[in-house]
Amino acid sequence: MNKTVIVTGAAKGIGRAIAKDFAYAGYNVCINYNTSEEAAKELCEALAKNGCSVIIYKADITKREEVDKMVDYVIGTFGKVDVLVNNAGISEYKLFIDITQEEIQRMLNVNILGVFNTTQSVLKKSMLPRKDGTIINISSIWGMVGASLEVAYSTSKAAIIGMSKALAKELAPSNITVNVVAPGAISTDMLGALSKDDLNVLKEEIPLGKIGTVEDVAASVKFLASYEARYITGQVISPNGGLVI
């Protein structure tokens, strides 16, 4: 039986690349989305035409009932969940004193509570009863070292790292691994707030001299889900071109 993966926020950017990698590797893939329905449908149709086993599911990961229904649907369709990739996330780029309570709360809800919801649901419904599974959480280098003008985002991504390390210890006796991929500067919509000059300055700060691609991140995720990574848990892999060492 093929393995099954749920990728949250998989319609665009890094999540899209992760979903494609797993689909072409022979996994059953659930493409989760919340607002990007057109992009999710387009991805699903394109992968299906290439013989991949894919479904899409709309769920707001901040709402536990929606998450539970999604996980039930995936298990009903494919029988189990082997891999969970918590990719969905949002960011804000502004001065700390200017960010509103509503913006902070929304970011914490999506970036932290959403991960708790999906992880708890998958663990209870599939991984713990089978004593097998892989959880990969997408953080950021700013969760490792912090970023000016992204205090709330850095806070939420640092929390993901702490959660993952603690959960890895808790779940290891059940043969479930938990790891983190913390990307550096990656060419996605999240870099849209930077000007061309800012991007050039950023490239100069990166030892490898270039902005990363979504495929660079997806490769790290797929490795952590592979048999070769079976003895790796509680770790942070950071594809960042040497920006943070």
Describe the structure.
This protein has 245 residues and is α/β, with parallel strands linked by helices. The protein has a single domain, classed as 3-Layer(aba) Sandwich (Rossmann fold). Helices cover 48% and strands 14% of the residues. The chain has eight helices and seven strands, in the order βαβαβαβαβααβααβ. It has a seven-stranded parallel β-sheet with strand order 3-2-1-4-5-6-7, with helices on both faces. β4, α4 and β5 form a beta-alpha-beta unit. α1 crosses α8 and α4 runs parallel beside α6. The longest helix has 30 residues. The N and C termini lie far apart (40 Å).
| Helix content range | 40-55%
Instruction: Please tell me the total number of domains.
Output: 1
Q: In sequence order, what are the helices and strands, one letter per element?
A: EHEHEHEHEHHEHHE
Strands of the widest sheet, in order across it, are 3-2-1-4-5-6-7
Number of helices: 8
Determine the CATH superfamily.
NAD(P)-binding Rossmann-like Domain
If classified by CATH, what would the architecture be? Answer: 3-Layer(aba) Sandwich
Class from helix and strand fractions = alpha/beta
What overall form do the CA principal axes indicate?
globular
Q: Identify low-pLDDT runs.
A: none
Q: Can you give the mean pLDDT?
A: 96
Supply the CATH class: Alpha Beta
Quote the distance from N terminus to C terminus. Answer: 40 Å
List the helices and strands and how they pair.
Elements: E1 4-7, H1 13-24, E2 28-33, H2 37-49, E3 53-58, H3 64-78, E4 83-86, H4 101-130, E5 133-138, H5 141-145, H6 151-171, E6 176-181, H7 196-205, H8 214-224, E7 236-237
